Prior knowledge:
The chain is mostly beta strands. The protein has one domain (37-186): Immunoglobulin-like, CATH 2.60.40. It is built from two helices and ten strands, in the order H-E-E-E-E-E-E-E-E-E-H-E. The strands form two sheets. The chain has a five-stranded antiparallel sheet with strand order 1-2-3-8-7, with no helix packed on it. A hairpin with a 4-residue loop joins strand 2 and strand 3 (62-70). The radius of gyration is 17 Å and the shape is globular. The termini are far apart.
Amino acid sequence: MAIVPSSTSILFTSIFISLFFTSCSQTCSNHKFTSERFFTSCKDLPYLNAHLHWIYFKSTNQSKIAFRAPHTPKGWIAWAINPYRRSMVGSQALIAFRNTKGMMSAYTTTISGYNPSMQPKKLTFHVSKLSTEYSKNEITIFAVVGPLAHGPVVNQVWQVGSLDKNGVPMMHEMGLQNLQSTNVIDFSSL
């Protein structure tokens, strides 16, 4: 008599394996930036093996951030703030990828629906010093965001995806990790 695993046990096994590999990967606290940048705080995000580093400037209510996620040269990463709720729709994103000329590209965009255009757009909060780099199969977005209208506690969303044959960001996958890549971050915490 053969024992056939139930779909529930397969799901739990998949989640366990995913969490195991995520916990075995590099953490934010031991990361060294190639550009010799420094950040006082960091958080290993719970999905997509992503990491957020920051310095919060209380006097201006701004945060200098570095968002890192592993990805191929033919993919994109994005980090966003949703000023209204903890979801992708309504978020305002910083996106980065390698363009068709082989150069790294970063810009801001808004996510107004489940199949956004991903075209450059201005955000409701100020973004300065936006740049990106690709190193060791990882893309990093650097920026200064703010002042933030609601203070240092924000809804954050992060994501990874692929580019189409013309080098345009396509919709991300709909896997469990992609769908759960959102939480709240307090920039004033260490």
